[in-house]
Amino acid sequence: MPWNGEQVAVCGMRQERNISTFVAGIATCTLGHAHPVMVEAVTQQIQTLHHVSNLYYTAAQGELAKWLVGHSCADRAFFCNSGAEANEGAIKLARKYAHTVLNIENPVIITAHASFHGRTLATITATGQPKYQKGFSPLVPGFYYVPYNDIAALERAIDELDSGGDRQVAAILLEALQGEGGVRPGDRAYFQRIREICNQKGILLICDEVQVGMGRSGQYWGYENLGIEPDIFTSAKGLGGGIPIGAMLCKSFCDVFQPGDHASTFGGNPFACSVALAVCQTLERENLLANVRDRGEQLRAGLSAIAQKYPDAIADVRGWGLINGLELKADSPLTSPEVIKITTDHGLLLVPAGPKVIRFVPPLIVTSDEVNQALETLEKAFASF
């Protein structure tokens, strides 16, 4: 069975079947399933120490932190268990920086419409999608939303917030590419102007790299596609290849946390860190970034060909590396769940990014033949409507 295949259960019975998964646990199973490197890392670590309180130093945590800061713009790393927790940490760090360094009494963090930052109370508030917030009010104060990739709207928001009242902008939190919001890449000029504004005003720039990071964009981190460096960024999903782990990383100048300010019982445990380190080292050793770029180009070319064949149904193809979206036309009766149901019946697992966008996030080890097979299945799905 291929590493990016799955075993599926049908009616309670275990059935062997080759499934082409272009979901990868929603951009999480970096090396597919049952990769020998991960099997070895899990086996070796569980035979020694699987959990040690983060009151103590462990080699696995230290080595993972060293790899991450060595392959990014960060100087510090804090480990937790998920992307939501990583973003919670970033929000807390930005708020403490605002109080202790910027002397802001009521700090505001600007985020984008159609963003997604997690499902804790603070991160659903940061998420600029009301459907995720419904039923959970009162929400956490201190957030303000602007359209994504619209620099004029962002500058107006900063002027408005900083010109009156007791609120002031302390940080801007954005995804380098909006995943749940429809697979929408950030505009390079937009992010470079934001970096200039943050430098001028002392505002922290935070990048949510939970979905687009760890090589999925064709670079180690999505921000590298934009020609900027954030002050803080977060990672999870692909970091552990499917083993739960999250990380908040930052530059040293904004590391204002003191002992006891933030913590996580399971964060940085040696089991998760050893597996994450094995994933990181494999990403580098096997030059998977080249495969991500090559297979991404192949996939987008194939999707564009299908879009040309079905112009009444498909509006756009976009993405970076191996995170790509196929957008259905607004006036088309088709929805992404309807198309995905057909592809699933034919052995291709996909995931929506809203009602009109089909998302493609295969493992980073996906082969050329597997991409071609996925494209053939997708075309059959459109032909069936």
Describe the structure.
The chain has 385 residues and is α/β, with parallel strands linked by helices. The protein folds into two domains: 124 residues, Aspartate Aminotransferase, domain 1 (Alpha-Beta Complex); 248 residues, Aspartate Aminotransferase, domain 2. It is 38% helix and 19% strand. The protein is built from twelve helices and 17 strands. The strands form five sheets. A seven-stranded mixed sheet has the order 4-12-11-10-7-5-6, with helices on both faces. It has a four-stranded antiparallel sheet with strand order 13-14-17-16. A two-stranded antiparallel ribbon has the order 1-2. A hairpin with a 4-residue loop joins β16 and β17. α3 packs parallel to α9, α10 runs parallel beside α12 and α11 packs across α12. It starts with 7 loop residues before the first strand and ends with a helix. The N terminus is likely disordered.
**Can you tell me the number of structural domains?**
2
Q: Which ranges are low-confidence, i.e. pLDDT below 50, for 5 or more consecutive residues?
A: 1-16
Strand order of the largest sheet: 4-12-11-10-7-5-6
Q: What profile does the largest beta sheet have?
A: 7 strands, mixed
CATH class of the largest domain: Alpha Beta
**CA-to-CA gap between the ends?**
31 Å
User: Over all CA atoms, what is the radius of gyration?
Assistant: 21 Å
CATH architecture of the largest domain: 3-Layer(aba) Sandwich
What portion of the residues fall into strands of 2 or more residues? 15-25%
State the total count of DSSP E strands: 17
Do you know the CATH topology of the largest domain?
A: Aspartate Aminotransferase, domain 2
From N to C, what is the helix and strand string? EEEHHHEHEHHEHEEEHEEEHHEEHEEEH
Total of helices: 12
Alpha-beta classification: alpha/beta
CATH superfamily of the largest domain: Type I PLP-dependent aspartate aminotransferase-like (Major domain)
Tell me the helix content. 25-40%
The average pLDDT value, as a whole number, equals 94
Instruction: Name the shape in a single word.
Output: globular
